[in-house]
């Protein structure tokens, strides 16, 4: 079953950055069902299948795209 996660992401300079991160997560990372990035609050909310992917993989994809995710402990 899907699990949701929410965490901060830093390094966004404009609103299109948020759309870029959404695209990276939802189109390039198998197992991510949906991703929503709020530019103003600098937060990511995502639904994913824990048998397929993980917040660590999301953070790695975000970092590769030039941003920094701050995962919960
Ligand atoms: Mo805005 Mo972000 O011009 O990767 S899209 S800086």
Automatic annotation (TrEMBL):
<protein>
    <recommendedName>
        <fullName>P-type Cu(+) transporter</fullName>
    </recommendedName>
</protein>
<comment type="similarity">
    <text>Belongs to the cation transport ATPase (P-type) (TC 3.A.3) family. Type IB subfamily.</text>
</comment>
<feature type="domain" description="HMA">
    <location>
        <begin position="3"/>
        <end position="70"/>
    </location>
</feature>
């Amino acid at each position: 079953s899907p699990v949701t996660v929410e965490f901060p992401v830093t390094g966004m300079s404009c609103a299109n950055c948020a759309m870029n991160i959404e695209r990276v997560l939802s189109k390039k990372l198998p197992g991510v069902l949906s991703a929503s990035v709020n530019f103003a609050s600098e937060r990511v909310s995502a639904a994913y299948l824990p048998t397929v992917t993980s917040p660590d993989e999301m953070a790695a994809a975000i970092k590769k795209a030039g941003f920094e995710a701050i995962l919960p402990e």
